[in-house]
Amino acid sequence: GPFAGDCAPGASVTLGDISRRVRDVPPAPAPQAGHDLVALAAGEAARLLGAKTGRALARALEESFVVTTANHHGLDTHPEFLQGVIVFALDRLLDAANPAGVVPVLSTGEVPMSNMAFPQGIFLGRPKAEASTAYHRFSLFKPKSRKTLVSLQQPFTADDVACAGKSLAASPFLPFEREILRVLLDEICGQEAVLGQASYADQATVFNALLWPRLFGDAIKPPHLVELDKAELARKLIIKDLSDEHSLIHALLFQPKIRRALLAALSGTLGCWRCQAGDMNIWSEPVQGTVLFWGVDDQGRAFGLGLAEDGHLVSKAQPQFRLSLNPADLSAALERKRIWPGLYLSSAAIAIACGLVCCGGT
Fold it and tell me: Less crowded by CB within 10 Å, the N or C end of the chain?
């Protein structure tokens, strides 16, 4: 890795050093400029967190085209993801001269609400000395939402927050955990800035921005946390690129030779697809993926797609689904949120096409 020399015997390197050097990694060579992504991300930040934060995010990305993409989108309380963001942001946290900085996070929303980060609510880690159970989950949503994609989940309501609050008295939580949950419900989830959002993904962005400064003592004035849904950014970028014959997405989807090479190269890869004869590619259970896009049902649940030899996206799970692989039909389906970018296509639009440096996964 780029810091291998720092790990030699006798070398002295801190997490702050690594965080600082990660931010200095230059953009990767890319077929497209990154200004579309910067403008889109800044616009989303401005819409959700205010114009000043949007401008600060644009400046941050122009200075350092590096983000962390390790998180699953949702209320960011899972220790693994939350601590990763703190490590990624460490150089900014230690930079007292630049309190107006921004920590950019593009988190994965193209996962179900039941994923390991528990976006259905609040995840509480526990010191092992406190109890035999290492964690507890506190839900804000009804079980029927478990398979809905985070990106497509409807927002929780004031009634949901009130109902969750009433359940605390009879909950199995420890006293200090109830106190924490009460603060999170009353002082963050119950704020109009959170409740007033049109989607759960937007609520998560605002919730995480409000929670972030509470994690630090008075001695640290942290930079702003801007955590956006990577899948939603990818969806909008792909819609734009579908009409641009010079874009990478257009080439991957509509130049037969390039598409065949792509499908063959990623066949059998986790999160992608498994090829059969020719261009016939049907989702296979061991691969747990889809061909290019997910199909989306009326409840916002994803189902795998394959590419038929006649050029249509089809599904074994939903035999009635049939979508022609052409720019107009794909754009319309993306606009209506009846298809969603798959893992590879989302990464291609966000990172490969414009050279964004993504730390910590997808």
Answer: N
HEC letters along the chain: CCCHHHHCCCCCCCHHHHHHHHHCCCCCCCCCCCHHHHHHHHHHHHHHHCHHHHHHHHHHHHHCCEEECCCECCCCCCHHHHHHHHHHCHHHHCCCCCCCCEEEEEEECCCECCCCCCCCEEEEECCCCCCCCCEEEEECCCHHHCCEEHHHCCCCCHHHHHHHHHCCCCCCCCHHHHHHHHHHHHHHHCCHHHHCCCCHHHHHHHHHHHHHHHHCCCCCCCCEEEEEEHHHHHHHHHHHHHCCCCCHHHHHHHCHHHHHHHHHHCECCCCCECECCCCCECCCCCCCCCCCEEEECCCCEEECCEECCCCEEECCCCCCCEEECCHHHHHHHHHCCCEEECHHHHHHHHHHCCCCEEECCC
The pTM of the whole model exceeds 0.85: yes
Distances, alpha carbon 303 to alpha carbons 79, 262, 311, in Å: 29, 21, 18
Of 341, 107, 134, 346, the C-alpha closest to 229 is 107
For 302-325, how does the pLDDT look when each residue is reduced to its tens digit (9 = 90+)? Answer: 998 988 888 899 998 899 999 999
